[in-house]
Amino acid sequence: PPFPISLLPQALTFAALFPDAVGRVAAVCGAARASNYNKVFLHSLRTVLTADPLWSQADQRFHGTPQTGLRSLGAVWAGWGLSEDFYRQEEFLQTDVGDFQSLEDFVDRGYVASFVGDEAHNLLAMLSTWYDSDIAHAFNGSLEQALGAIQAQVLLMPCNTDRYFSVAHSTAEAELIPRAVLAPIPSTWGHRAGDPSRPGQQGQSNFINKQVRGLLGNEKGKGK
Question: Residues 6 or more apart from 209 whose CB is under 8 A from it?
Fold first, then answer.
């Protein structure tokens, strides 16, 4: 079965398949399967990318580098990766975030620029794998059986403003994992809160590090 990759925590899959070998799991801004809402987002990204004139529907590939499609993909992604609160409060203009001069400047340099150099077919492969990712594939389609097979201490850390993987989604999954603890990241950075490598994200980094240190130092676990 396809393993959840990238933004979906692979560790949950390994913990379900090899319960005796995995002792702890810290899943940051992820889920055990792509939700229907998540799939709508992924479908929109694929549609935008393959709308580029260099895409061949017959060959199912690009004939050249689809610069228009890549730029469009980045622009759409910018509306999903961060929360409405982040944009409403104009946090992109804060000096600790960067030297962005406007909303348009942030979208262009903060998102679009990171996609224009990507290999488009790799992106399509990522979107397809993400779309089909489901921990239940190896358990006859049963999410309950898959998550119930996990014996590890599991720390689920969704961001409270993540549009990909919501706190509600993580809460529902936590109820099915025998030894799960839910610790939402309080942040307006949406899904990006789970990758606190950018300027202005020290608070998210500190929160995640503290939670992970607690998980690693908790030999017996607290259960739910």
Answer: none
Give all strands of the β-sheet with 153-157 in edge-to-edge order.
24-28, 153-157, 180-182
**10 Å Cβ neighbour count for 99?**
9
Please tell me the predicted confidence (pLDDT) of residue 102: 98
* End-of-domain residue from the set 115, 132, 149: 132
**How does pLDDT run across 178-212, given as a tens digit for each residue?**
999 999 999 999 999 999 999 999 999 999 999 99
Last residue of a domain, one of 82, 115, 132: 132
C-alpha 153/C-alpha 20 separation (Å) is 12
Is the separation of the CB atoms in 212 and 183 below 8 Å? no
Range of the domain at 20: 1-33+139-224
- Residue partners of 205: CB distance under 8 A and separation at least 6: 196
Based on the fold, state whether residues 119 and 194 are members of the same structural domain.
no
**Mean pLDDT value of segment 141-152:** 97
What does the pLDDT read at residue 221? Answer: 43
Torsion angles phi and psi, residue 134, rounded to 5: -160, 115
